[in-house]
């Protein structure tokens, strides 16, 4: 399988605090990788480094064979290929639902309005939000916002989508809708890296599970490896906390 | 000495053309000053809002640093000195160089003075916007300029509209200081009429009333716009999730 993204020896510190230490992993095309671990383990920072919202202090991020930290690559065009879905949705408050899905296409991909609109409607339909196209994005519920945010990302035709705890800010009854959309994407072959606390989702959907602890990858493998036969004491402890809930 | 209301009314009707001229100049100064000041404020606010990005090269960092320095200097000087003094100083400083009329000078000075205040208004408007908005725009691949123009400015202007509108009212009143360089605005006209009639109380009372009417109309209009902006003109949505 073609390797889409390789992360090698990645390091990130905030001042004296080392948040990521010697991170190594890769994601193949069409694969779903989930990152699990307790709060503060560095999962979200790792995801943000991949999209260059945080700049790593060391190591390499190789996307389709090119090192995005050193090779002269246009950051904006790289970001356009790597979508991001945020915990707090971050829909543009000054734009309605449809415009949220069109602006990236028009400004970054330089598409015509008609083209952008058609594509936006297609992806809004995919996430079940087509009836809300003209709605004020601030007036939606959390679950609706997140589905629009996913549609907004899909409109850019990304090769990889990063999900940063996409369901953590949602009421429990809305989590299912968002996870269903993500499962559908995974089934359609979208490459995804997902930071999540939804263990059931990680188990069902992932091809690879990465367990992070205190800024390092403590263990990674298939869901069967990690959930059924965890090797590390830390992994066992972490998973037992979820099993007991 | 008491106010002769009959005389005041007579003066008002006979001198109306002069007052009217002054009103037009005052309103022109206030509108131009507020609008150009807003544009200046947006530019300055954007420069001050630029954080030094670790991805920037050395040249860009130096430019950004220089930008911060110049804008801080500008705000410091123009907020820290009276507009009347700025007007007199700049008018006489530049008159031999560019030969400007006092009206042009007045327009320029009220604009750059307002710009210094607008810069602070816009900056706090930008700061009130959640950082997630910028991150989302970046994650789509938008450039800094695109993010500013399409996402941040529209929200910053909307958030700080009450303060921006307040500047218009301030400018209707403060344009009177430009009489110091003989701009024929309302206060300057009033002084001329007072000088020719020798009845100061009545004439300045008229000026007071006119200023009050102008600022009242302006604030009614601004309130209406503000209400319109906060009204939800979108389709109401049932929470069905």
Automatic annotation (TrEMBL), chain A:
CC terms in the record's Gene Ontology section: plasma membrane
Enzyme Commission number, as recorded: 3.6.3.-
Keyword Hydrolase found: yes
Keyword Transport carried by entry: yes
Residues annotated as domain ABC transporter: 5-239
Alphabetical UniProt keywords: Amino-acid transport, ATP-binding, Cell membrane, Hydrolase, Membrane, Nucleotide-binding, Transport
Protein known as: Putative lysine transport system ATP-binding protein
Protein's organism: Catenisphaera adipataccumulans
TrEMBL record, chain B:
Domain ABC transmembrane type-1, first and last residues per copy: 23-222
InterPro entries for this protein: AA_ABC_transptr_permease_3TM, ArtM/GltK/GlnP/TcyL/YhdX-like, MetI-like, MetI-like_sf
Alphabetical UniProt keywords: Amino-acid transport, Cell membrane, Membrane, Transmembrane, Transmembrane helix, Transport
GO terms for biological process, alphabetical: amino acid transport
Chief localization: membrane
GO molecular function, one term: transmembrane transporter activity
Spans traversing the lipid bilayer: 20-44, 100-119, 203-225
Bilayer disposition of the protein: Multi-pass membrane protein
GO cellular component, one term: ATP-binding cassette (ABC) transporter complex
Subcellular location: Cell membrane
Pfam family for this entry, one: BPD_transp_1
PANTHER family (alphabetical): GLUTAMINE TRANSPORT SYSTEM PERMEASE PROTEIN GLNP, MEMBRANE COMPONENT OF AMINO ACID ABC TRANSPORTER
Family the entry assigns: Belongs to the binding-protein-dependent transport system permease family. HisMQ subfamily.
Protein name from the UniProt record: Putative lysine transport system permease protein
Organism whose genome encodes this protein: Catenisphaera adipataccumulans
């Amino acid at each position: 399988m073609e390797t889409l993204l390789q992360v090698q020896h990645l390091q990130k510190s905030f001042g004296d605090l080392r948040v990521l230490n010697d991170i190594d992993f890769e994601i193949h095309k069409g694969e779903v990788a989930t990152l699990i671990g307790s709060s503060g383990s560095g999962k979200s920072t790792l995801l943000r480094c991949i999209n260059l919202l945080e700049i790593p202090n060391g190591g390499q991020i190789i996307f389709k064979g090119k090192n995005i930290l050193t090779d002269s690559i246009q950051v904006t065009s790289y970001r356009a290929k790597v979508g991001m879905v945020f915990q707090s949705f971050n829909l543009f408050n000054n734009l309605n639902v449809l415009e949220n899905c069109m602006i990236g296409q028009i400004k970054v991909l330089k598409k015509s309005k008609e083209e952008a609109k058609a594509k936006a409607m297609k992806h809004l339909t995919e996430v079940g939000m087509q009836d809300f196209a003209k709605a004020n994005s601030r007036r939606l519920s959390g679950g609706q916002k997140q589905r629009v945010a996913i549609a907004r990302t899909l409109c850019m035709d990304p090769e990889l989508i990063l999900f940063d705890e996409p369901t953590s800010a949602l009421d429990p009854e809305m989590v299912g809708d968002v996870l269903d959309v993500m499962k559908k994407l995974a089934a359609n072959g979208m490459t995804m890296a997902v930071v999540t606390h939804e263990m059931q989702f990680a188990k069902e959907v992932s091809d690879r599970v990465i367990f992070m602890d205190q800024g390092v990858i403590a263990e990674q493998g298939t869901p069967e490896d990690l959930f059924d036969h965890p090797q590390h004491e830390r992994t066992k402890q972490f998973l037992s906390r979820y099993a007991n809930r | 000495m008491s106010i002769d209301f009959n005389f005041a009314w007579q003066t008002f009707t006979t001198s109306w053309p002069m007052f009217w001229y002054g009103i037009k100049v005052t309103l022109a100064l206030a509108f131009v000053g507020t609008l150009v000041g807003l544009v200046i404020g947006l530019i300055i606010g954007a420069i001050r809002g630029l954080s030094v990005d670790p991805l920037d090269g050395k040249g860009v960092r130096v430019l950004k640093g220089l930008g911060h320095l110049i804008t801080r200097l500008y705000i410091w000087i123009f907020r820290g000195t009276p507009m009347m003094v700025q007007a007199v100083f700049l008018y006489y400083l530049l008159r031999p160089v560019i030969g400007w009329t006092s009206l042009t000078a007045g327009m320029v000075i009220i604009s750059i003075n307002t710009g210094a205040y607008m810069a602070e208004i816009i900056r706090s408007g930008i700061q009130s916007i959640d950082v997630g908005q910028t991150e989302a725009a970046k994650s789509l691949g938008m450039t800094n300029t695109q993010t500013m123009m399409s996402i941040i400015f529209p929200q910053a202007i909307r958030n700080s509209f009450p303060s921006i509108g307040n500047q218009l009212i301030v400018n209707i009143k403060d344009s009177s200081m430009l009489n110091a360089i003989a701009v024929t605005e309302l206060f300057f006209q009033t002084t001329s009429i007072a000088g020719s009639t020798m009845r100061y109380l009545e004439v300045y009372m008229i000026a007071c009333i006119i200023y009050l009417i102008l600022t009242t109309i302006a604030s009614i209009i601004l309130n209406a716009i503000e209400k319109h902006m906060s009204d939800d003109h979108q389709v109401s949505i049932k929470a069905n999730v």
